[in-house]
Amino acid sequence: MPTSHADGAAPPDTADLTRLRRAAADCTGCGLYRAATQTIFGEGPRRSEVLVAGEQPGDQEDRQGKPFVGPAGRLLDEALAEAGFDREAMYVTNVVKHFKFTERGKRRIHEKPSRAEVVACRPWLVGELRAVRPRLLLLLGATAAQSVYGTAFRITRRRGEPMAPPEEFAGLFDIGVATVHPSSVLRAPDRETARAEFIADLRAAREK
User: Fold this and answer.
1) How far apart are the C-alpha atoms of 150 and 172, rounded to whole Å?
2) What is the mean pLDDT of residues 55-83?
3) N or C: which terminus of the chain has fewer CB atoms within 10 Å of its end residue's CB?
4) The CATH number of the domain where 59 resides is what?
5) pTM of the model
6) Backbone angles phi, psi at 53, to 5 degrees
């Protein structure tokens, strides 16, 4: 039976990622489920030291059912490897679990989630954090960072900076670090510089 709640999603009270994933598949906490192909839940070892959270699935993620498998995902894999992370040992997810898009002909163009959609989906991220209990929460992009640290958070001011969890997330991770989303690197006029800065942020996070 679909999961619905007046204030958004209502995950089961469990630290079992399999149960959370099954419940999220039927979530109707916001309207994004209507157009998306499927819910894209996180993937990775349950006891990962690092949890990576992006904004939302993209077109390829929505089709394939896995997080970070499109062009931004390939760049992320390369950057993580260059920064010294073991991608296979990390839990990877998004703060919004459905693809939000605008159709232009046969193309589906990414559309930024609204604040209400981010808030509706946040209980699933909390559930994942409660299950994984990572040492490091790596937030990719402003939407992901603001989901945890509030709407006043600015990537431009605090990217790469180690931060304690806010009160709402106390005990769910040890250190948070925010940086840009890899999709912004792909769109940057000077892609090589943007890529180098992204990898530098990841290296700094690895050392925390």
Assistant:
1) 16
2) 96
3) N
4) 3.40.470.10
5) 0.93
6) -125, 120
Say which residue the tokens 């159709």 belong to.
Answer: 103
> For residue 162, which amino acid is it?
P
| Residue 42 placed within a domain | yes
Q: How far apart are CA 157 and CA 195, in angstroms?
A: 18
Residue 123 forms part of a structural domain = yes
Report the number of distinct structural domains present in the chain. Answer: 1
Would 1 be classed as within a structural domain? Answer: no
| Average pLDDT score over the chain | 93
Strand ranges in the chain using DSSP code E only, listed in sequence order: 50-54, 91-94, 101-104, 107-110, 136-140, 175-179
Per-residue pLDDT tens over the stretch 80-97:
999 999 999 999 999 999
What are residue 107's DSSP bridge partners? 104
Find the angle CA(40)-CA(2)-CA(18) to the nearest 5 degrees.
50
Provide long-range contacts, Cβ within 8 A and 24+ apart, for 191-194: none
Q: How far apart are CA 136 and CA 23, in angstroms?
A: 25
Residue 10 within any structural domain of the chain = no
Return the structure tokens found at 94: 């998004």
Q: Decide: 24 and 18 in contact? Cβ < 8 Å.
A: no
Q: Residue 87's domain spans which residues?
A: 17-206
Q: Within a 10 A sphere around the Cβ of 156, how many other Cβ atoms?
A: 7
